[in-house]
Amino acid sequence: MWSRVRQGKSCRDYLKLRRVSAQIPVGRSVYGLAAIGSGICALVWHNFDALGIISHRQIFIYILAALEIVGGLAVQWSRTARTGAVAVGAVYLTFVLLGVPSIIAHPCVYNGFGNFFEQYSFVAGAVILYACSCPISARFAILAEIGYYSFGICVASFGLEQLFYLPRRQAWFRNGFRRDRCSGPSRPPLRLHSPLSHFSRV
After folding, report:
1. Per the confidence metrics, is the pTM higher than 0.90?
2. What is the domain count for the chain?
3. C-alpha–C-alpha distance, residues 21 and 140, integer Å
4. How far apart, in whole angstroms, are the C-alpha atoms of residue 46 and residue 40?
5. Calpha distance 163→178 (Å, rounded)
6. Is residue 198 part of a domain?
7. Which are the contacts of 150, defined by CB distance < 8 A and separation ≥ 6?
């Protein structure tokens, strides 16, 4: 079966990879800039939430942030895009593996799964970028398709996470607006965090 795939049996994957390869510069640049921004935020705030509590945490923060910035820069050029994809993917694969103990410890709490797939989405992006930066062949077409399906699973996880936490978010908004109306000098209003606050907690 593998030999038949290598001989070109999977032409649908081949054509898909060829079409995506023609569009990859914009996506590649955005992916690289996101990695650079994440690494810079980690250096500025000296924090990677995904690392959790580990020994020598600060050292790992600087190493992973530097690797992410260098990988993001390498992604910007087609000749070094594969190396950059490997570097960025390795950073987020580290975060993925660090999230596994939380899932094992609390298998009935979806937060651990949500964090796992959030980090895994960047790994899937790195896999797609690597495959699309390689010479076109059936082998890399299969690798790209694995990345597509993996990212699709991550998107489904994002939707489930929003659905599970929707009642809590609604309570946050209701309580926040109620406190804004009833707050006095001795009771400060509840602050509602915007989505942009996520980047300050990278």
Report:
1. no
2. 1
3. 11
4. 9
5. 24
6. no
7. 120, 123, 124, 127
